[in-house]
Amino acid sequence: MIEVVGDSSRDREFALVRLTVDGDRIVDADAEGLERPLGGLTLLEAAAVPGETLAADALANALAQVFRAAPNPDRIAVAMSGGVDSAVALLRAGPRAIGVTLRLWIDPAAPDSERACCSPEAVIAARETCHALSLPHVTLDLREEFRRAIVAPFVRGYARGETPNPCIRCNGSFRFAELLAFAERAGASRLATGHYARIVEHRGRRLLARARDLQKDQTYMLARLDPRLLGRIWFPLGEQTKEETRAEAARVGLAAARRTESQEACFLGGGDYRNFVRRHGVEEAAGEIVDEHGRELGSHDGFWRFTPGQRRGLGVAAGEPLYVLRTDPGANTVVVGPRESLAVETISARGRLYVRVNRAEVKWRYRSPAVPAAVEEVEHGFRLALDMPAYAVAPGQAVVLYENDVVVGAGVL
Hints:
Elements: E1 2-10, E2 13-22, E3 25-31, H1 43-46, H2 53-63, E4 72-79, H3 84-93, E5 98-103, H4 120-132, E6 137-141, H5 143-159, H6 166-185, E7 188-192, E8 198-202, E9 205-209, H7 219-222, E10 233-234, H8 242-251, H9 273-279, E11 287-290, E12 296-300, E13 323-328, E14 333-337, E15 344-353, E16 359-363, E17 371-378, E18 381-390, E19 398-403, E20 406-412
Parallel strand pairs: 4-5, 4-7, 5-6, 7-10, 11-14
Antiparallel strand pairs: 1-2, 2-3, 8-9, 11-12, 13-14, 15-18, 15-20, 16-17, 16-19, 17-18, 19-20
Helix pairs in contact: 3-8, 5-6
């Protein structure tokens, strides 16, 4: 037998839960503020017990340390963000579903952290959605792990003059690795999420494919997810629109139907990345803004504040619109020029092709239009010869390859 303790505090109020656990069952519990006693319950049953917010938080913090459940082929673990998409995914997962929410690190100085998909408020909303349906919910506190795996590389990327995409790094490795590991501990046969994407058979492999709702399609953000994991993953919203999702949630009276969208780059909490990067160790240093011939046009206070394709905020007067063409971290300079100088016709990326292709459609930004290209596989990645010039291509960006709506490769420029 082992003893675990969980606590929670907010607005000078405090709650504590103490559990004595033998295997997967609670043999004794000291827990006030819950709707039923915990003694004799399995960990899975205890995770479905609602209560006052602080008491439920404390229980969740205790359960996360030891949670496990016997395998059940009908059980589906559902990644819960507190929003409408994951709430409807939970509905689709059936009466033996279990919700799981990752609590991740958020900038303490963020101006709008409550909207983040991993905030304390989102955790509470996710848990309340599960409990309203009499389903268990577990919270995994991974704040420090997330900070090391996602936030620190984000800052280092800007210090190197890159334009990193932390959401792709998170979804492609950290987030799904943690969620799938939890699903196994929870005895679940697979993991469901509220992402708008599909899983299809293509060229003899199980691969990601664009969602039916192209305006909400999230395959760009999921593209680096290892295809070998897709047999354990389910995207129940891939065949429907966002409007249909909200209507489904409203029909059953879920509060999540009215919840606003969560933000990308959740740890910024609505803040400007430049201020964040500066506060996390990338120093400001005055440097020159120069044209393509090296002539000085102005000055800046940090090359990392600029990214290729940027037009606003240069503070340089010229007879034509000027765009950032590139930055030079070593010299701390920003090179600007006309839009036509941004054009590139070949792109190289570190990454992998999931199937061999000679041609594909290429996206290097979430909202960028896809451009057809010839594909050449090279060591540690691939090289692309674009059918038409691309603009605002920056080191550190993610590049995703599609063939007939199917993700066939992904990498980093």
